[in-house]
Amino acid sequence: MQYIIVGGSAAAISAVESIRSLDRDSRIDLFSDEETPLFSRVLLPYYVAEELSKPLLNFRPADFFETNRVTPHLGVKVTSLNGATKTVKTSDGNTYTFDKLLLATGGRAIVPPIPGVDKEGISTLKTMADAEKIYHMQGKRAVVIGAGSIGVEACISLTRRGIKATLLEQLGQVMPTVFDAEAAQIVRKRIEDLGIEVFTGEKALKFTGDKRVTGVVTDNREIPCDMVVLSVGVRPQTELAVQAGLTLGDMKGIRVDETMQTSTADIYAAGDVAETHDIARNTWFLNAIWPCAFEQGHFAGLNMAGQKTLYPGSYRRNSIGNFIGIPAISMGVTHAESCAMTSDEDEFREIRVRTKDAYKKLVLRNGRVIGAILVGQTQKAGLMSILLRKQVNVADSIPMLMSDRLNFMDLLPILRRNADQFSEPEYKELMDTGL
Amino acid sequence: MKVLMVDKEKCTGCHQCELWCGTEIASTSRELARAINEAPQPVPRVYVEGQKFALQCRHCENAPCLDACPNGTMRRDPETGLVYVNEPTCIACWMCVMVCPFGIINPSSSMKVAIKCDRCRSMGYPICAEVCPTGALSIVERKDYRKKKF
Question: Of B5, B67, B102, which is closest to A408 when you measure between CB atoms?
Answer without folding.
Answer: B102
